[in-house]
Amino acid sequence: MNPYPQDPYWMVALKAFLVVVGLLTAFAFMTLIERRLLARFQIRMGPNRVGPFGLFQPIADAIKSIFKEDLVVERADKVLFVLAPLLGVVFALLAFGAIPFGPPGSFFGFHPWVVNLDLGILYLFAVSEMAIYGIFLAGWASGSKYSLLGSLRSSASLISYELGLGIALLAPVLLVGSLSLNDIVNWQKENGWLFLYAFPAFLVYAIAALAEAARTPFDLPEAEQELVGGYHTEYSSIKWALFQMTEYIHFITASALIPTLFLGGWTMPFLNVPYLWMFLKIAFFLFVFIWIRATWFRLRYDQLLRFGWGFLFPVALFWFLVTALVVALDLPRVYLVYLSALSFLALLGALFYSPKPVRKGGGA
Fold first, then answer.
1. What is the pLDDT of residue 88?
2. Which residues of the chain have pLDDT under 50?
3. What distance in Å separates the CA atoms of residue 174 and residue 5, rounded to the nearest whole number?
4. 92, 46, 65: which is closest to 294 by C-alpha?
């Protein structure tokens, strides 16, 4: 049963409108922020010509996308070709509405979320899975073999990391005893961040969320060197921009879900400023993901599948079984903290003490 009183329908509609406007604005400026950060990482100048400090660059990009010629290839399925980018944007926007940004009643006397769902985790999982239909339809409807290969890559690789992602979410669900995001945040407020109890699940979820957002090093569906442009090769103008919007909204949503599920959401042990803490946590993961893009290389298709089935899935399953054992036997939860610390130390050891690969054979 939902413990929070339902907001009036007009307020729910207003909050949904604010979420959509906020995400579209965030998408516009994240393109600028990412380009500026990548320029800093690569010791070059970023976009800084349009407006003061380049702040009007997103507006210029939007105008360019709107007024570019909108081409539809002759062999394309016209209806599905137009429907595909719209589906991606809709499902990407739906996922953000269930994330709580503050304590109940803190948004001018209303709740700081669009809707509080008792099955919030299942809702997020279902909505994120539906987004693949936009990518698959884009490849199928384009009438291009490169687009089709890109969409098939997405569909096949989806299973390899989504299974690990789903099982990783079961560890916090078992500890909290609820699928509601609000219940998960409130449990962390009372007992400490779930990151401390389930570090392996946190690691698996963060990596799988990066793959779900199709960010480097998991941006295989649009591998330019192999597939020209991936599933949106034949798209141009505003429809191409919609695919970019979908990717960035997934990117922002993943950066909001990680702190919500594992880092206490809007809570902090000190300074009760929930909206500020939530914003800073989201900004931190956005920065980390951009940093990874600037410094990491794209995995091969077979490497992604091997990584998903050989690392993400076994680690998530192992930690789920460990958590289930602790909960079933009603053991002290501090055992999970000790095991999480050991897993973190094991990860550090693997990173710093792994043998360097030896190149065989000669060469000039």
1. 86
2. 363-364
3. 25
4. 46
Residues linked to residue 110 through DSSP beta bridges, in sequence order = 107
Question: What are the two backbone dihedrals, phi and then psi, of residue 296, each rounded to the nearest 5 degrees?
Answer: -110, 160
Please tell me the distance from the alpha carbon of residue 168 to that of residue 289, in angstroms, as a whole number: 19
Written in H, E and C, the secondary structure of the chain is CCCCCCCCHHHHHHHHHHHHHHHHHHHHHHHHHHHHHHHHHCCCCCCCCCCHHHCCHHHHHHHHHHHCCCCCCCCCCHHHHHHHHHHHHHHHHHHHHHCCCCCCCCECCECCCCCCCCCHHHHHHHHHHHCHHHHHHHHHHCCCHHHHHHHHHHHHHHHHHHHHHHHHHHHHHHHHCCCCHHHHHHHHHHHCCHHHHCHHHHHHHHHHHHHHCCCCCCCHHHCHHHHCCHHHCCCCHHHHHHHHHHHHHHHHHHHHHHHHHHCCCCCCCCCCCHHHHHHHHHHHHHHHHHHHHHHCCCCCHHHHHHHHHHHHHHHHHHHHHHHHHHHHCCCCCHHHHHHHHHHHHHHHHHHHHCCCCCCCCCCC
pLDDT for position 70: 82
Return the pLDDT at 168.
92
- Of 122, 127, 120, 104, which is closest to residue 6 (Cα–Cα)? 104
- Token digits for 335? 């055992």
Q: What is the pLDDT of residue 8?
A: 84
Q: Give me the residue spans of the domains in the chain.
A: 69-350
Chain-centre distance for alpha carbon 187: 23
256-274 pLDDT, tens digit per residue, is 999 999 999 999 888 888 8
Give Cα separations from 226 to 158, 233, 263 (angstroms). 19, 12, 38
Q: By the 8 A CB rule, do 161 and 213 touch? A: no
Residue in 315, 356, 337, 8 with CA at minimum distance from that of residue 163: 315
**Residue 262, pLDDT score:** 94
* Burial class of 88 by CB neighbour count within 10 A (0 to 12, 13 to 18, 19+): buried
